[in-house]
DNA sequence: CCTACCGATCGGTAGG
DNA sequence: CCTACCGATCGGTAGG
């Protein structure tokens, strides 16, 4: 519910949709909820946006792009693999802290898109996955990382671990994004066991 | 769509609901879809079940209980922490392999329950979390695991990593649940870095 | 940007 | 377990 101040724009609608989808998920948020949030009747939203699904698509794509933008330079930095993994995790946590709700939407709710739109998103998800895949493969090739029977599991579980932070991270919590990133990087690199 | 053979029971309805909720999520699966799956008209489902939400609640609770049953004895086995973590991960993967779809529902879709029902589920989720918390704290206390500034992050990220396997595991894939469990346990215990 | 409304679909029920 | 239907809500549109 907006108290009648300022113009409504596609950006404002997206912003409120991020919040609502993040809290309650796409299928259970109605155009009437979004309308209430920006102070418009449901039908009037279509002056600014073309459909509910288009709204979701934009949110998901931008949500993933934020991560690509932040992590790609780290991967291409030429530093040793361990430093790059640490840097990638740190960059991931920075983006997460800045876009928790959008990340929640991007990570899981692309499944509500039509199959054509899912293809667009899948391409971006693959690019994200390849970033971690590169660090890991190059790290194993250089001997910085240990050889392992199933490096794919390491890639997917590292990403899964990072994305799972979305489910419990809170900007108001006692753990900062940097704290969490450091702890995650330590665990990923040296493990839990006493060396 | 069932081809008119055998009696319909609450169990059959639950079984088909697990599959449908797992594939498409609770809010976008209608009672008409479930009816089609078991060969009943939507209204007739209410002979066997009391409500759609009750159906979800049972699926989620049983889904979590499967994990509690499998992992609790491992945690209480009295073995060293590293062996128990390995055993807990292995047990987790066994349950996952046997109940992929139910796990998908249990992990994320409890959010669609009413707040009273969410409380029931939260209690079970906490019990699950405490299992890993115990292994980790006892491992640190005994010196089997390294001291770390934020053990909570290790607990939550380990669980997050395990639950994320749900999103890419396939019984038809080349990686068995045991393969994945071993790789995860190695990564969690000794990390990626060359020692 | 609102008024007024569309057809479709939702979970669930009464009465048999 | 079906027939027949309930009120509510859905995303979206025509016409102004």
Descriptive account of the structure:
The structure is a homodimer of 195-residue chains. Chain A is mainly α. Chain A folds into 2 domains: 10-47, Homeodomain-like (Arc Repressor Mutant, subunit A); 52-190, Tetracycline Repressor, domain 2 (Orthogonal Bundle), CATH 1.10.357. The first copy, chain A, has helices at residues 10-24, 31-38, 52-75, 81-98, 100-108, 115-142, 151-165, 177-190. The termini of chain A are far apart. The mean pLDDT of chain A is 96. Chain A binds a DNA duplex (16 and 16 nucleotides) through loops.
**What can be said about the biggest beta sheet of chain A?**
none
For the terminal residues of chain A, how far apart are their CA atoms?
A: 55 Å
Q: Identify the CATH class of the largest domain in chain A.
A: Mainly Alpha
Average pLDDT confidence of chain A is 96
**Quaternary structure state of the chains depicted:** homodimer
- The CATH topology annotation of the largest domain in chain A reads as Tetracycline Repressor, domain 2
Proper CATH architecture of the largest domain in chain A: Orthogonal Bundle
Q: Cα-atom Rg of chain A, whole angstroms?
A: 19 Å
User: What is the chain-wise order of helices and strands of chain A?
Assistant: HHHHHHHH
